[in-house]
Fold each of these.
Amino acid sequence: MDKPLLAINDLRIRFAQGEGQVEAVKGVSFTVNAGETVGLVGESGSGKSITALSILQLLPGNARFSGTIEFNGEALLAFSQAQMRQIRGHKISMIFQEPMTALNPLHTVEKQIGEVLAIHLGLERSAATAKTLELLELVGIHDAHNRLKAYPHELSGGQRQRVMIAMALACEPTLLIADEPTTALDVTVQRQILNLLTQLQDTLGMAILFISHDLNLIRHITDRICVMKDGEVVEHGPTGEVFKAPQHPYTIDLLNAEPTGQPKSLTDNPPVLMNAERIKVWFPVKKGFFRRTVGHVKAVTDLSLAICQGETLGIVGESGSGKTTLGMALLKLQNSEGEIHFLNQRIDTLNQKQFRPLRREMQIVFQDPFGSLSPRMTIADIVGEGLDIHKLAGSGSREQQIISALSDVGLDPQCRHRYPHEFSGGQRQRIAIARALVLRPRLIVLDEPTSALDRTVQSQIIDLLRSLQQKYNLSYIFISHDLAVVKAMSHRIIVMQGGQIVEQGATRNVFTEPRQAYTRELINAAFEAGHSG
Amino acid sequence: MTRFTLNPLNQRRWQNFKRNRRGYVSLWIFTILFVITLLAEVVANDKPLLLWYDGAPYFPTLVTYPETTFGGEFELEMDYRQDYARELIEPEGWMLWPPIRYSYDTINYARMAPAIPSLDNWLGTDDQGRDVLARVIYGFRISVLFGLALTLFSTVIGVIVGAVQGFYGGKIDLFGQRFIEIWSGMPNLYLLIILSSFVEPGFWWLLGIMLLFQWMTLVDVVRAEFLRGRNLEYVRAAKALGMGNVRLMFHHILPNAMIATVTFMPFILTGAITTLTSLDFLGFGLPAGSPSLGELIAQGKNNLQAPWLGITAFLVMSVMLTLLVFIGEACRDALDPRKYYFN
């Protein structure tokens, strides 16, 4: 075989942190041949993104390297910034995870792609426009001509990712680095983007370094796989072999990390805890000098649901289907119309002050375990705050209640004097659950509680939630786009699209015999890309 | 309730602050200067700190004694700097003098004003025969105290207004912003000049008038932080816990806004000091006779034959402002989350 296109040899990356240093990548070596797709898999914190960013020297200034990165036989780490600019976007391109933030919101599609062409190929404006059009058609954007003048916010998530790919391909790079290009997208769109990438590779013959946390996701599109853990490559080899006979226990863990099981079945006829009728959340769209309301964004329209004690109601839908808005409206964190009854009391007519005492009965756990804990408070303060607000604790019992809530969620109570940043994502999510749990609520709204977590951690959190439900007879409203997780958690499921219920029923029925085409499409996309299909 | 240990975040900030050697050294120099000038009455005074007369102690800086106490003729306050006083007191006891035997308003009749620096008046005297060093010490103190007071009050008002606007948004925010736009359009220097013709502006008057316009500096910054902060997940989580608005604002969102605020504060301080100095220079500032750096600059301008006036004022101002700017830069570094130092 010829010399590989990209050869990384014993790469080590250290970061300065306070007084000390953290070694994020510890001696990683792998190669990518021309025209080949290599998957770099690992959970968050495994150093996979840092490795990829270091190829383009895009790391912050407090990083220090050793080892070699050779691209086409040239040592990239020795390149100056000026030399690197010739490589970036030209020979090696990159696609990022979040297309909304990776595109400049103030520039049109034409300008963003044209910029790359002007810098690297020195194209004139008209030539650049023609080439841009060609690229947009290549990545499958319909009506590309009219889309040239569109701004990123006018495009959907999938379209934005396509524009990102078009930008990356503008100069026909020999290596494309795709850093979790589908993670932020809905399942149905994920499939399309993956297909697009494989198809483009066939036509353009470039090499792809595909970074993902999800081993199953990249099964079909990679030739070889490197599994990373804690800054080291623990296993690598041809994709088929890795899947057939994984050697390292960590790889086996990753492969088996799909959430499984189902919730414990309910006792007969549990009492209804919450009952919502004809919930409607419309955001007015205002225009003109007098701000007249010219239309509405219909987030949730005439939606009714009921939830029993001890039951989990799963709400699934793609982004923009209104599922989070619905959750917020049920907790009165979002103004809505319609009747909500909770514990046989009508709550939609109460004002915030009257409602406040009831808040302890219904709690919420958010998606982002990094954003939902105040970085300036200790764990004890975060968990104890609800107790203070509702004056539930005498002086002695406050500490006791905090300790028992922390042990309920499987954390060592000794850690309660530390701050959130000292914990991992999964531990932080446990803290957020403890904060909700300490008030002994009857209902917890779980808004994508596992989506920001690694698969192996997800399963642990799901087990935890299920056992807590049994212990305290909790009701959950479980909002997620991830069907595998919802399946493992819920007794009943509501499928939402465009603010309305498309289908609802017992979990088993919905999954085995979906009645609506949309539900079928969702299930197919999720379980073909996700599972070994 | 509050344990006085810095949380890890603040510890890192303090480390970052110390890493900026220039700012750290500046902080020390400034603190020493400020403490010295806070004790101005002990450092530069025309009365002895302690006086021993006829077997008993006297404290002339604290108590006013008439001449008759020491065997003089009149019921007037003793002028301890005169030879007459020394003749009365020294046979019966002794006097402990501060290092500089002039207060800011003591006139040295012995020499032609303005007198050049000498062993007696280390920085010379101004055109009214007052000791420049004593005036600089008192002037430094009043400038810094004025700056600190103005910074403190304008921060408190600005943060509260910004917090309310940002947190509630909507109409409150809209009208608040329009009011600030109009209010900041007022020519505040002219207003000060007009007002100072109605009242004799003392320290507090000046502070109040300047506060009318200074409080707006921070509103925009704090407002923006609150607009962002009210949608943070941990703020919404706290709301879901049933937390009231006031506690939400000051317990959860304010700490975010404080980064921007604290970064701004040293620069508000230097701005306030410069403004006070320029008002004094123009003659619309503190009442005549008070020790102020601006007045010293004006004297330097009027007495070009006495360069020690202008040079002293220039040096004191530039050292003070330079120190404060360095400290401000170190504060900014300390609060910058992206600032790392590599060993």
Amino acid sequence: MDERELRTLVGRVKQGRLSRRAFFGRMAAVGFTVPMAAQVLAIGGVSIAAAPLAHAAGKRGGSGELKLLWWQAPTLLNPHFATGTKDQDGSRVFYEPLANWSQEGELIAVLAEEIPSLENGGLAKDGLSVTWKIKKGVTFHDGQPLTADDLVFNWEYAKDPATAAVTSGSYINVKVAKVDDHTVKVSFDKPTPFWADAFVGVNGMIIPQHLFKDYAGAKSRDAPVNLKPVGTGPFKFKEFRPGDLVLGVINETYHVADQPHFDSVQMKGGGDAVSAARAVLQTGEFDFAWNLQVEDSVLTKLEASGKGKVQLSPGGNCEHIQINFTDPNKEVDGERSSIKTKHPSLQYMPVRQALALLIDRNGVQKYIYGRTARATANYVNGPDRYVSKNNQFEFDIEKAKAILDKDGWKPGADGIREKNGVKLSYVYQTSINSLRQKNQAIVKQACQKAGIAIEIKSVVASVYFSSDVANPDTYPHFYTDLQMYTTGPTQPDPQQWMRSYLTEEISQKSNKWQGRNITRWSSKEFDATWTAASTEIDPMKRTALLIKVNDLPVQDIAIIPELFRLGATAAANNLNARLSGWDSNCANLREWHRV
Amino acid sequence: MSLSYVVRRLLLAIPSLLGISVVLFTVLALAPGDPFGELMTNPNVPASVQLALRAQFGLDDPVYIRYFHWLFSMLHGDWGFSFASRMDVATLIMQRLVVTLAVLGSAQLLAVLVAIPIGILAAAKPYSLFDQVANTFAFIGFSLPTFFTGLLAILLFSITLDWLPFVFQSNLSQTGLAWWWAEFKQTIMPICVLGLFQGAALVRYVRSSVLDVIRLDYVTTARSKGIGERKVLMRHVVRNALIPVVTIVALQLPIVFGGAIVTEQIFRVPGIGSLLISSILTNDTPVVMGVTFVFAALVIIFNLIADLLYGLLDPRITYR
């Protein structure tokens, strides 16, 4: 099915000549899943029905206390300063955005009256603006109404460089104007296909103007309300002890009828992931535990106690191996891995091909990650609509050997292959994490069999994932031949995330290693495709471009995608918790209830 | 002993504290990592935000300037603010100090209550069965680190037997007696783990100290005067034997703090130990400085108390 056919079908649905059901049927016949087909309809200008609630509506309150266990506790409760998911989750108990992201990567209206679309006039045809209608009758916990002024204020607050808000990325490139008390218009400089960024999801939580207006810019730290949030959310603030505890009580005037179902919520923090899993799955002391980066075998054992179960939410996180295209062992102008050099062996395609064949992705998934990851050939693994079908992976040591033989890399006296004095001997680094060290060992073993020597290096996570300019062991320096870690888009759109292969983003001394292109792979074709996708407002064409954006670095083996990692959480058996891999775990707290 | 001695000791503590703060600050500045590392991996946070935050929090200044900044505000009573929670360090520490002191105090009390009777009884009849058993347990006790015994206790009492909770709750909803019962249930494990570890080491001190005294001539004299064995032990032996033990209890406090850091992490007790760990992990320098400074001050104070007590208990020792 090509673009033209898709268009005809969508057109027929719009005019009412083809039922949605029939449309989904046709799409399924050519391999599109239902959510994906729904998305094609949505981006084709047909609004989607509001996602059904996860349960039959109950009454407000009555479910008692909800006990959440976050093994890293929130340290602050201002969503614009949230340094990690823990702070975003803590803030989300009290604050809300205009819309949430569902598991399928679709928008669910929260503070918005409706989701903007071409049909309801919310989206401009030229892709230069989006108009949001705010739900009427919403009040903050102190009784003040939510209006368009609050949204304009949030934009001004977040984009002010003096505030140094971590959400600023979503606000600096847009303009927000009040249309009337309950309508705002977000405009863009250039056509913007991914318009649902400002005021949406984790970066979109709305803080009240009347409490923050005196504390914008450089004074932002002094706002007392930073630690005593007043939002529109399902729970009102009761107590906060940074790094330990967040307490909320039911908001009796919440803007959705019959919600929330819990009377109070507590988020306890501290400890470690395994004992957090234990407190939910084995002893039942808590209802829900977050971010369980634990071996699946351990989780399965704990689950056997029957008090709770593990919930997996797919987002877009990809554990992958990066290949250095520059020489990490040669220093040029005070930096190693300089773009003025080329890697002595990894610059050659056959060597990279052989390496890709030596990664036993199925083995790593089966023996280390279990249910919490899926072996993958792609870098972009979600949402479904952007996942390429053009790539496969295989694990074949003999084939790798044959490729190296053919290219003239012959085993030397020590069994390590070499050509013209260049040995296939690599340093392979990652952060210290028991899962990753096992993964390294599996790769090392296979490479040894094929005559490639691998030296394993593990760096403490707090160093590896830091931006310390002076430390050569951080991942952006990439002073080794290979390295491995997980990264993913934080929104159901890979555009921003795929900046990491742009030539202009190459991480080097001149930009203090702040660039996002770590492999230093560079391709004019990629740069052009990415740029085209960033302003292409035709959804079908853009999807095709984004799939190509994934395929280019994957097929040139700049990276070897290994696993699509899912978010793992634990929930008590009597808790119905709807999660989304594209939003905070607390995004749907209002719907959570006992079963 | 005189007041001037106390004043002199307190004045001497100032250079020690200064020295400690210089070393701490330098080590923290040299340690890798930075508080905004997490922003780095987020593709939606522009690099400029991190640079602006670093500038705003003064992280780009040279180390010595940062140190003097910290020192001067500290002298004004301003402990700085946490990078992670943007809250004043003093408030953050005060929130947690109470829990830590309660747990540590109870643990130390438990240690003393267990160690002194056992140590004395063991020394009264050296190499008897009781002594052997007490010794064995003491050796096991201080050879096993608290992070290990803590986990064992959780496995046994929380998971297998399901008697005690292993997540410490600082917001118990009960009132009155029920509150005390819940508080007892959740603190008994951390207190026992820490207290018995301390107690084990203390048993050995008490025993050897009593053994030293019990052989002295005046004890033999007392016995030959026909005073009952019990009285000899309590009046003549223990009084003198406990003098070094008192100092050891005070001097052991730094070790208790060390153990508390681990125990608080295992049982999720929101004390300053767990605050220290999370701040170290996020490179939250002002908090790390604040907490370690409190620890250093407590250690110095308890050292002084130990010295003073020694003088009080043993008139032969005088300080000038």
